[in-house]
Amino acid sequence: MIINKDSTDLDTITACNEKFLNKCVIVSPKIIYGIDIQICYQNIYCIYKNTNKLNGMSSIEYHQQINRCRNATNSHVLFLNQSRYKLSNHYIPFDSFREIENNRYIEYKNEMNNIDAKYNLVDELCSSMDFSGNAKIQENLFTLIHYLKTWYDEIFAKNKVELIEMLAREAGYSISYKNLNDSHTFDNTDFKTRLNDFNNDRKTELTDIAKCVVNENVGDVKNKILLEQLLLRSKILKINKCDNLEALLIDEKKINTFINKKYLDLSFDEFNRFRSSTDKQELSIVHKDNKLINKIDLIFWLENLLKIKRYDINSINISDVEPVKKALIEKLDSLILLSDGIKSKSGLNKLYQTKINKIETNDNIKSFIADCYNSFGDIIKTQNKQIRKKETNNRPYIKNFVLTQ
């Protein structure tokens, strides 16, 4: 079970002692405060990355998250940033820090003026901070806020691990250390061999369970987690009257592409009939969070914008791309539905805005639409042909787009 900002409702979290029982639970900072997990764990594992930066959780938040499991015998914490051994937190009085910060600014200004003294670069950049000619910060609200913020960072942001350890000791934890330092050797070849062996064993196990599912003889299957996954996949594929059931059961990517393309191939009228279907079983499995429906709605909108039929990318011929770019920017919040992954909404907005801003030709539009289709699976492939033109600097032009299946 994965708990993050997108995957889990509040009811599941508040009922954690029932919902988490006998499950492997992976959590993001979605869970920091507010719940008491009373399940008895022998071991819990925490992995943290940004322990020497301003982003990420604070030391108190790290401690709070580690302490959510009230009855854990051992809490194993891995800090990926090994520079924690070179940094340390030290308390410094505010007045002393202000003097240090002034000296830092003077050094920085001298350094920058050496780089480009001609344009008084630092004076121009820092004029809003109201520095005097001798580079002493004038007392005002802005500079006071700056001092307080950087003072806080100096004390708490350099090495959160040290503070986490202090909080843990105060809470009664007994701490032991295991350093993964430079003397630790790692045999990459051996790791790849073991990984390949694991993947082969997993594939064999999946194939055996898939045969049991197809033959409806699952009573002797011991791996109940894999069995549950394959039974759900089987349910989806049977709803869609899929051939070659056994081969698709063991490949989630192929299943998703198969399902997506089936509904993407529907005409506008067929899709609307499907949307209004009263088959609740199909709706609950295929229409998860309505994402598939919303994505296909967006494809119909794109095709209407470009006056093309389904998959007919090669017929795109827009005389002026600017109105198309404007329409895409206005639809930005919907376009990000076409992306799967771990990027934030703001990150996806920025990604798609960059793609849209780069559109200058019909070839660019064709590539953009091909990427939209391929968000449903590997559906469109491109065939490139080098066209020699002086003005293009031998840039390869996309010659043709074809369906992969």
Q: Between the first and last Cα atoms, what is the distance in angstroms?
A: 34 Å
The parts where pLDDT drops under 50 for at least 5 residues are: 127-133, 389-394
Largest sheet: 2 strands, parallel
The ordered H/E elements are EHHEEHEHHHHHHHHHHHHHHHEE
Task: Bin the strand percentage.
Answer: 5-15%
Report the helical percentage: 40-55%
Number of strands: 6
DSSP helical segment count: 18
Mean pLDDT across the residues is 76
State the domain count.
4
In spatial order, strands of the major sheet run: 1-2
Shape: flat
The chain-level structural class is mainly alpha
- Cα-atom radius of gyration: 29 Å
What does the secondary structure layout of this molecule look like, with pairings?
Layout lengths: L1 E2 L6 H5 L1 H4 L6 E2 L9 E12 L10 H8 L2 E11 L14 H23 L4 H5 L15 H16 L3 H11 L17 H27 L9 H16 L5 H5 L2 H13 L3 H8 L4 H7 L4 H16 L14 H10 L1 H4 L9 H13 L4 H13 L5 E7 L9 E8 L2
Parallel strand pairs: 1-2, 3-4
Antiparallel strand pairs: 5-6
Helix pairs in contact: 3-7, 8-9
Polypeptide structure, described:
With 405 residues, this protein is mainly α. It folds into 4 domains: 2-86 and 159-170, no CATH class; 94-156, no CATH class; 188-250, no CATH class; 290-403, no CATH class. 50% of the residues lie in helices and 10% in strands. It has helices at residues 10-14, 16-19, 59-66, 94-116, 121-125, 141-156, 160-170, 188-214, 224-239, 245-249, 252-264, 268-275, 280-286, 291-306, 321-330, 332-335, 345-357, 362-374; strands at 2-3, 26-27, 37-48, 69-79, 380-386, 396-403. The strands form 3 sheets. Strands 1-2 form a two-stranded parallel ribbon. Helix 3 packs across helix 7 (160-170) and helix 8 packs across helix 9 (224-239). The protein starts with a strand and ends with a strand. Residues 127-133 and 389-394 have low confidence and may be disordered.
